Amino acid sequence: MQRHGWNNRKLELEVALNDRLPGFLRALAKANIPLKKVKTTKNYVTFQTTRKHLSMIRKLRRKHHMRITIDWLDEEVILRNEWIVHIGLLLLFLVPLCASQFIWSVDIDASTPEQEEELQKSLYILQISPPFLKRKLPDETVIRQQILQDQRELSWVHINQQGSHLTFSSIPSPKLDTEIEKKEQPSHLIAKKSGVITHFNLTKGERVVEENKAVYAGDLLVTGILKQGEKEIVYGAEGEVFADYWIEASFSVPKKVEYEVPGERHYELKWKKDKKKKDGDWQTVKLPKWLAKYVDLSVTQQGITRELVLDEQSVEKVLLPLLHQKYVNELPPKTVMKREKLLQVAIDNDTVKGKVLFLVNENIAVKQAIYQGD
Fold first, then answer.
1. Which CATH number fits domain 4-72: 3.90.550.10, 3.40.50.12280, 3.40.50.2300, 3.30.70.260?
2. What's the CATH number for 102-172?
3. Which of 131, 206, 256, 374 has the lowest tally of Cβ within 10 angstroms?
């Protein structure tokens, strides 16, 4: 069975003028073959019809011994009126539209392979594994909270979505110099500030409070005295006790701010003998040993300065992460900011002022020496 659209393709036929032409045209009319746009020149007659009549025209041509030249009028037509063209056009729109609803690739930009592996584990827990529907992507706050809880050595995670591509960039917490601990006398662990207990990380001692309980500054959290019947053993308490609490912060910044963002990365291959390092070289890519003997591959990334006029939307999108980073750097290691809440924003001609609440998860335990009698 021939396709309807294919049979309706337009043809232009050119027939030479001769004595047999009138009989040929009458035969076409008798066969109910429509002739459109009939034109006569000095030597030829041209007319248009459709492909479904072509077999009959050829039969009549042979009967009347006519010479016919056939020209397909829709050869240059890009979109023919055929069902397969309609389906193709529909797919042309539907396939990209459906594909745009998915996240197809997820990249992790971490400072070490270990951090990258840990980030992958956190994303697996959150079921962020491409391809998946964009509407199933958890909120940025939920993603960041999960990652920062799992990796307390991180201070922040940038989440950048461009089309169907998702990038996670981790920022490690600042490293603090740790001194060698001197041998101390046994101690309890008490709360240095108020909060709601979330979890314990103890090596010694016995819990006095349970998780999800509110405590206040000075409350005993972990005792360093173990009781065996009527006997007490001074053992000491060691470890961490994490609790949630809110802190309120105020900010006042210019309405117009300049900031710097990373530009495109450029890779440059240099011969090993060239020892000079160009300005802007960011890091050296590790190459196979046999290749590293001869060349170095460096990555250059220049910063791009941009200007931003702050409004309420940009305060929440741009300023809050910066404030988050600022306060995280001022807090002890392993501290996590779980959530931010913008309380108020006031914008005048040249200044933006406001207040923000941060939900912080911090180790609130400090040691309190156990005094023993002589």
1. 3.30.70.260
2. 3.10.20.310
3. 374
